[in-house]
């Protein structure tokens, strides 16, 4: 089932229609991000009971299926990366991808069981195209060469992980009212954040995001993943005015906080890689 159609059925939020041309979407990604509002609690993946699901069944099941779709994407990406042989010349990167791949597979199994346990149907796994219609060659299937493919593998992983962290957090409001859901949120969200930091360091970057900078070597089209990260107002306070005698810099203020992606923004980014 198409992700956007699913969310229309299982959530109260009206999703935007999918673009028919993913190449066109690739060109537009840089402008889709909106400045995000502060969310106090990261979005989560639930071991929630049927009772907790019943409290807000549409929203919670929709959130879980959005999470499952993002995990499907990451799970398949890391599995294909390991099978491609592109990482074979870098033992450190290969070991990191192997460990992250295990985590993503566990998240898929966990979410599937949680949704089924709530009496709902898990969204079907989409078909993915990580080349974006030929724009990328991360698995070196079309002759890009090992060096280019390796760089693209790392860049795509960074985009996926940074998207996941912000998207999970952005669904907090739909999961309020259930301690079990929020507990699972903190557990899994923090692991995804560790993935993001590890991948960024593999690329020679700091483990955190500064302002709305996507980082050296990231395609311009991935800017949507980072738009809104330059927010300096937290809980109504301009954090650049804080600090003992020396106000925090803009860089330090934005590095200290992650911002959200809305459901629409997360789906638009993920849909770039979804064929059906």
From TrEMBL:
Pfam families listed in its UniProt record: Ferritin_2
Protein name per its UniProtKB record: Ferritin-like domain-containing protein
Organism of derivation: Leeuwenhoekiella palythoae
Lineage: superkingdom: Bacteria
